[in-house]
Amino acid sequence: MTTLDQLRPGQRAEVLRVAASTSLAQRLAEMGLLEGASVRMVRSAPLGDPIEIELEGCHLSIRRADARGVVLRDD
Amino acid sequence: MALASPPTATRPFRVAVLGNPNAGKSTLFNALTGLSQKIGNYPGVTVERKAGTLTGSDAAIELIDLPGTYSLAAHSPDEMVAVDFVLGHIEGEARPDALLVVADASNLERNLYLVTQLLEADLPVLIALNMVDVAEARGIKIDATALAQRIGVPIVATRADRGRGLPELRVALGRLVATRSVPRPTIAYVEPAALTAGVAALASGAAPAFARALGRPLHRVELLRTLVDVDGHAEERLLKQFDRATLAALLEPARTAAGAMVPLSAIEAQGRYRWIKQLTAGCIERPATPLPNWTDRIDGVLTHRVIGTLVFAGAMLLLFQAIFRWATPAMEAIGSSFKWLASTISAELPEGALTSLLVDGAIGGVGAVVVFLPQILLLFLFLGLLEDCGYMARAAFLMDRLMTHVGLSGKSFIPMLSGFACAVPAVMATRVIEDRRDRLVTILVTPLMTCSARLPVYAILIAGFVPARRVFGVLELPALTLLALYALGIVTAMACAFVFKRTLLRGPPPPFVLELPSYKWPSPRMLAAQLLDRAKAFLQRAGTVILAMSLVIWAAGYFPRDAAMAAGFNAERAAIRAHPAGSGADAIELDAIALAAIDAREAALHLEQSALGRCGHAVEPLFAPLGWDWRITVAALAAFPAREVVVSTLGTVFSLGHGVDEGSTDLRDALASAQRTDGSPLFTLPVALSVMVFFALCCQCGATIATIRRETQSWKLAWFTFGYMTVLAWVGAFATFKVAGWFVA
Ligand SMILES: Nc1nc2c(ncn2[C@@H]2O[C@H](COP(=O)(O)OP(=O)(O)O)[C@@H](O)[C@H]2O)c(=O)[nH]1
Fold first, then answer.
1. Which end of chain B offers a freer environment for a tag, N or C, measured as fewer CB atoms within 10 Å?
2. Using a 6 Å cutoff on CB, does residue B68 contact ligand 1?
3. What is the mean pLDDT of residues B204-226?
4. How far apart are CA B729 and CA A9, in angstroms?
């Protein structure tokens, strides 16, 4: 099972599900981080955390710990 | 839900302006309302209320700019206000008559999310499709006509920063007023069954109990938010009326009726995005391969591990060099015009209380502060540039990890960085921090950041007492000292945050999601308007608070005036004049020197005997360990309401001490030549450093304390901030004085 935090910079993948039901998960869902969405890992911050992801052309920064809750489709 | 009463001749049509953050909402609002804006506050909360009259339209329309929000699921006070306003739940505010939604065309699907929620508010909606130029540059083509027809609301394409599309938008707003037609989508939203069932159960079940508790009926939108949102604002409001268990029991049947295995919030998002896909299918055309994106490339550099960090540090260094170098000519010009004014007045008017009031009190006091206008504007220009081009969010991204070490998030970094300009807007900027504890900690430590009002104090003392030596070839010691003082503020703020987050306000690091908007060319017009605002505010302060304080300090330093003492000095002078040393040039000069010495002694004695002098002497022992004499003590005390007053107080105290007729506005010389009673120079390097450190750490700003009280709704926290910073300042200044003393000796 791959999670969002494991992607390498530049790598793209499809979201399978978001495991958390926190307010953060809700905010991410509202921004389009949903089953079937395509996300790209852009880079991680100089100190390793947080990470920058691209979602439907929009760049977001989230923490690695939260990215771990986003399960990706393996292929 | 009753709709608001229709607008009449006396009440203008009210249109709320909404949109995602960074969609260009403020720019559009400013362009539509011009100079007619009124800024206030919403009752009970501390969110700024901006309203203005639509210009260039026959219809009487009032626009209200609401805080940026991604969705109606409110999690921060700002979002809460936006939602409450739309639903008419704000005390004393009628429900708006229509909504103007600003949507970013380069990111349309996500921006339509908020639109889909607002379509359920039973209000006329108009969409401003903004940033069409950015979309075009990315090769995105949008068929606005078809989209407007599908959503059932008018859409106007705009480019807010250049004023494009605004005439059309005004016309569309006028038409909206005339027709008041509510949205009629041609492709209908099929709400997920779980939500429909859940809301229906809530409406027939708990809703009456909620309505009784809140004293008003609940709109369907509010029921939906209560059902769906996790730790949302709707639930929080009910938790003020019901205890947790009762509320859970009231919500239970609705959640069962919804019967979902997946969180309802995900179901809602999925449902809405499915609809958005249907609405936009065939209306949005994207290039198969995205066009090369500048933001990505720039970010590759600016958020790079090494280069990005270097660029950040370099930018900061450049700022400090600039403040010292580039501002100088303008500052000298301002300084010499005040000097000219002072000498003209003292030449024209007879010596006495009135002349002293004008020259030493008003001109000396205000002039000493106004000189710093160029430096302060440079600082605001720099911060404005960073904000406007989109770099601030990168700074938060770069700094998040470091901030987690002290228990905060990168979001706290932006308010803290704004603290470099002024703590008042910085404390207000903490509203973007959703987590209460984080927000409070950020508020408590933000006043430690070196605000622009500290700059005058630093500038005068550094210029006077730090040798202008070059180190490492290019950097100058004064600039480095300034940098060190800024660093002191930052490090102390971090240390305090660390302590507070572990003691008073313990809690885990909160969730973090931050949008990194694409880079933009800063808009010169916006920047210029901002700078003009800042300059106006600064001069207004100089003309009111600082002038008043200067006059009070002057009066306290001038009165009471002992007539007998004055007579004694007059006799001494008369004696010299009556018996000149001789008639040669040398002799005349000798007499002049003797007279000047008498003047100076008289002035110093008057000051010492004055109310101000006595007060300074009384508290001097408290500050003597810092190396201060009573004059510095007086200046520091006078600066507690507003720290920039210290410069004018120093100006008044030391120019009074120098003899009125000299009319010295050159504070730097006055300070450098100031002596202790034993004749040794007052301002040695350790003393100057101790004063600077005190000002770096002390919360001498009535406005900040008032703002903290307003933002936290707690006097306790406001006074706590004042107290802990004052203690820190004393200890820091004491340590600095001792340590610097060893080095100098
Ligand atoms: N290129 C472009 N930039 C815009 C447009 N509208 C606003 N901006 C810029 O976008 C940035 C954010 O705008 P602002 O009004 O502060 O956004 P808000 O967060 O929605 O209030 C500013 O730098 C504006 O100058 C537009 O139509 N095109």
1. C
2. yes
3. 92
4. 46
Is A47 in contact with B402 (Cβ distance < 8 A)? Answer: yes
The continuous run of DSSP H or E covering B341 comes out as helix B328-348
Range of the domain at B660: 619-745
Question: Tell me: the pLDDT tens digits for B306-322?
Answer: 888 788 778 777 776 67
The DSSP secondary structure of B44-71, one letter per residue, reads SS--EEEEEEPSS-SS-EEEEEPPP-S-
At B156-194, the pLDDT tens digits run 999 998 889 999 999 999 999 888 888 889 999 999 999
Q: How far is the CA of B611 from the centre of ligand 1 (A)?
A: 54
If you search the block for the tokens 């500050």, which residue do you land on?
A: B623
- pLDDT score of B151 more than 50: yes
- B712 and B603, same structural domain? no
Q: Are strands A58-62 and A51-55 parallel, antiparallel or unpaired?
A: antiparallel
Cα atoms in the 13 Å half-sphere on the side-chain side of B218: 27
Mean pLDDT, to the nearest integer, of B388-400?
83
A66 with B512: Cβ contact below 8 A: yes
Query: Of B553, B587, B609, which closes a domain?
Result: B609
Last residue of a domain, one of B207, B239, B263: B263
- Beta-strand pair A51-55/B13-19: unpaired
| Residues B132, B206 share a domain | no
Number of domains observed in the structure of chain B = 4
Count: domains in chain A: 1
- As a whole number of Å, the end-to-end CA separation of chain B is 78
Among A32, A52, A61, beta carbon nearest to B109: A32
Judgement on whether residues B74 and B138 belong to the same structural domain of the protein: yes
Per CB-CB distance under 8 Å, the chain A contacts of B109 are: 32, 56
- Minimum distance, in Å, between the CA of residue A75 and any CA atom of chain B: 22
pLDDT tens-digit series, residues A3-33: 999 999 889 999 998 877 678 888 899 999 9
pLDDT in tens, B88-107: 998 888 899 999 999 999 98
CATH number at residue A21: 2.30.30.90
Residues of B in contact with A18 (CB under 8 A): 266
Q: What confidence category does residue B663 fall into, taking pLDDT thresholds of 50, 70 and 90? A: very low
H helices of B205-306, where? 207-214, 220-228, 233-239, 244-258, 264-280, 294-302
> Which residues of chain B does A48 touch, with a Cβ-Cβ cutoff of 8 Å?
401
Contacts of B229 in chain A (CB under 8 A): 23, 26
Q: Are residues B589 and B638 in the same domain?
A: no
pLDDT grade for B84, boundaries at 50, 70 and 90: very high
The nearest CA of chain A is from the CA of B259 a distance in Å of 16
Measured between CB atoms, which of A28, A49, A57 is closest to B400?
Answer: A49
Whether residues B175 and B200 fall in one domain = no
pLDDT of residue B46: 57
pLDDT at B642: 72
State the count of interchain CB pairs (< 8 A) between A and B.
133
Residue nearest to atom 4 of ligand 1 (CA): B161
Q: Which pLDDT does position B10 carry in this prediction?
A: 64
Rounded to 5 degrees, φ, ψ at B501 are -65, -20
| Same domain as B26, residue B173 | yes
Q: Is residue B163 lining ligand 1, measured as CB closer than 6 Å?
A: no
pTM listed for this prediction: 0.76
Q: Ligand 1 centre and the CA of A55: distance in Å?
A: 21
Residues of A engaging B, defined by a Cβ cutoff of 8 Å: 18, 21-32, 34-35, 42-43, 45-50, 52, 56-63, 66
Q: Is the distance from CB of B619 to CB of B629 less than 8 angstroms?
A: no
d(CA B380, CA B421): 6
Are B66 and B202 in the same domain?
no
Looking at residues B524-552, what average pLDDT do you find? Answer: 79
- Find out whether the beta carbon of B520 lies less than 6 Å from any atom of ligand 1: yes
Nearest CA to ligand 1 atom 7: B24
Identify residue B396 by its one-letter amino acid code.
A
- Of all residues in chain A, the one with the smallest CA distance to B76 is A23
* Nearest-angstrom CA–CA distance, B371 and B313: 28
